[in-house]
Each structure stands twice: as C-alpha cells, then as structure tokens.
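URGENT: need a sanity check before tomorrow's submission.

F., can you look over the Tripartite tricarboxylate transporter substrate binding protein record below? I want to be sure the sequence and structure line up before it goes out.
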Amino acid sequence: MKKNQTTIGRRGLLAAGTLLPPALAMPALSTPALAQGAWRASHAVRIIVPFPPGGATDMLARLVASGLGESLGQSLVVENRPGANGVVATQALLNSPADGHALILATADTHTVLPAANPRLPYKVADFVPVSGMASVVFALAVRPGLPAANVGQFVELARSARQPLTYASYGYASVSHAAGEMFRAAIGAEMTHVPYLGAGPGVLAVTADQVDMMMVPVAVANPQRSRLKMLAVANAERFALVPDVPTLREQGFDLTADAWIGLLGAPGTPRHVAEAIHAAVSRVQQTDSFQQTLRTNGFSSLGLDPARFASFLAAESERWGQVVRRGNIRVES
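Structure tokens as predicted:
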C-alpha cells in the first residue's frame, strides 16, 4: 500500500470514536428505489483526495468512507494525491475505470475556480460524472486587529478612501479564497491588492500579525483566532451556527455569498445507476447526527445533492465563479 493510502473498513472511524453528461440528465430515482438497486462494489473503492492528509477535506473524506463501506459492501481506501491544485488527483481518476470503484472528493477550488482560471488543463471538468454534492465551506470576512473598522460598512469606507490600496490575503492564487476576495473587492468598488499565501493558516497568521488588512477565509480556520483578529461577517446566505454572533454580509448591505462546495465526482463514463447507488449510500451517512455535528463543528454546511441536482448546481457554480475569475483577470498560465 502506498504511503498516503489509508484503508477504512466497514465500521472504520465510527467504531473508533460541472455539467451533467447526457446519461445523467434525467430525474434521479427516489432513495428507497436506489436502496433496492442492483449495483454494489465488487472490490475496494478509492476516494481520491487532492490534498495532503490532515486537512478538513481529508477529514470529510475519511468520515464518509467510514460509513460508506457498510452500504457498498467493500472497504474504502482514502488516497491522498496532492499536487498542482488538484490536477494530479484528477488525472489519477482519469486513469481509473469508469465503474464507480474510483471517485474524487472534488472542491470548488480544484474543479470550479481553477478550471475557469486555467483553460489549458489536461481535461474537461464537464466530462466527469456528478455523484453527490456533500457540503459547502462557509467563509468569513476577517480583518487585522489594528484596522479601525468594527463592521463591514466601516471597512468599506476605509477601503474606498485609503491613499494606498488596502490588501487582502488568500490561501493561494486562483483559489476560492482569492476569487472571494476579488468578488468582495468588486462589490464594494474599491482598489485592493491581492497577497497570496501558501495555505489558509499562513494567511490568517498574516492577518493576526497586522501584515495584511483582510482575508476571505473559511470560518473554521478564522474562528480559533477570534481573539487576535476581527471577524466582521460571514459570506453566507444566513448566519452560521459555529459563529452565531457574526452577521452576514447581506445583513450589512452586501448581497454576496462566497462558499466552496465539496462533493464526489466519478470518472467520465461512469453509468448513471452507479452514480445514483453511491449517492444513496452517501446520503445515508450524511443523515446521521454524528455526521451533521461534525460538519457544523468543522465549518461546513450540508448540501445533500443527488447526481441530477448536483449537476445543475455545478453548472451554476461554474458560471458564478467563472464571471468573478474573468472580471478579476485571474489567470493561470501553464
């Protein structure tokens, strides 16, 4: 077994404590009908994760895998394939049979924003088969402690009147964090300078150290630093249970939502009934209280989208973030 592979059995962790292909473009079956479907895995199923072990996406993959094994009748292997902003992991899926035994835990970073910024990717995201839209990462607008702004309105006044453009951090160029920062900058009509960091942690630390003015960052990353930064808003449609005292951007006059989806995609050509059977198994895991509690405490909100609805969602997300990327001139030349 490879160094970054972890096999999770049927009980696993629980015991331990963007377009729809024509074959899927039809209404999904109900969950009871799916439960009676004929497809079951014939050998171990791989969930390829485009990030190193230990992060929030990796945690989500392992949590799902721990419950999926029992439903699919096989062990689940979480395979970490970091590199090139998800390209390495995606190519690994392309080299796998289209039979449901290999999936990728894709994200808005790897399969929405990056493809919009880099049209030269060696694959088309639209070719992959939507399986299950699982969760979204809730983002917050965080500012440095020394900035004289107690709310979004005051920050906007500063940004518009500053002699030198304020700065905004991101956890990487052509990431959701970058695009969300650009979305906010455009919404308030102010000049700001982007400062990319290699990860959310370093970016937040730069904010806490007064080295950069603002960052659009996952709530779960910013929240542990609440005593060292100011969280002015959540970029969500409604207040988030993890930080119920923080108002939304909409409440403060800016109708802006910036979140990052996470879900399972199958290899191009994966049959519709296979995708639906896997989604049904994922749905059963997601409906457990323990899974929902883990989502909330780690800064996720639940999606629960079947293949058909996930396909429509991905198409809308590609258009939404694509506009931000194009207007912000976010380009990856490779």
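My own read: The longest strand covers residues 129-143. Residues 1-36 have pLDDT under 50 and may be disordered. If you see anything odd, call me.
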